[in-house]
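Handout, page 2. Input:
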Amino acid sequence: MTNAPYTTLPPWPTAYPASGASATLKRHNEDFDVTELPLQPPIGEGEHVWLYVEKNGANTAFVAQQLAAAAGVQERDVGYAGLKDRYAVTRQWFSIYLPKGETPDLTPLQHPEFKVLSQSRHVKKLRPGDLQGNRFRIVLRDMTGEHDAIAALLQAVATQGVPNYFGAQRFGHDGGNVEQGRAMLAREIRVRNPKIKGIYLSAARSFVFNEVLALRIQQGFWGQALPGDVLDDAGRPTGPLWGRGRLTSSGPALALESAVAERHAALCHGMEHAGLDQERRALVASPVDMSWEWPQADQLVLAFSLPAGVYATSVLSEILRTTEPERHTEHEPAAVE
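Output:
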């Protein structure tokens, strides 16, 4: 059982041998370009106004606040499918509940960090997770390393996928959300804000999942099914998202997951009593339509799509080591890709 505070994130292992390559990520916001892939486009009628927004340098929650103010509604009346990175150029849908009166035209709305590209009405509010996934175009600068070694890893990742880790964004500045989650679950601190409480619970839950995935990688089982594994609809093995109820795995898979739960018994026990139910998440993520090019010898451009909830950083970390310009983001909401 782990009793020590979770003050730093462990160096979770990668699945592929290190290429020795490194690069700068997000030197410019335009270097990390994300387009949301919606479940469906708005149909042109309904009680909700959907806005297609491009943002540059703003986080999703901030844009939602600005849209609420512009439409004259409460922030709770604005919905979106996922949080997108602040230091990026991203395009995503927002919904605003406006059931009565004339539809305000918000396309002329001017802001230095975002613009409304289009709007239409729809019958439902956008809620977290209401998306197919995201399309990424990532520019990596100051590349070092052998092109042949990097290309071999790119091909392996495109063919076999990557470990479906939750990205570092999930855990807050220096991983502090996990420790806050532990303290909250242990009733050492009291968190009244439901959004902040949700962030801390998600961080704790994601941490335990990553620990299960890391152990499978260490034991050589990350991309293959163990006896007793629970498989998803695509036939891939899954790992636990902790909550109340029994683990649905059995045999060796159950033994591995139970060993991690015992190591983090305080976190798991707390989550079982925090209103979360046991769920499962795929251990393997597969980039779709992955391509790459070298515009310059020290510059690599990657493009790929990922399903909802899968992190682009999980792809990048299997290929090379990245560093970002120093930015203090302690109070930033965690991006959810």
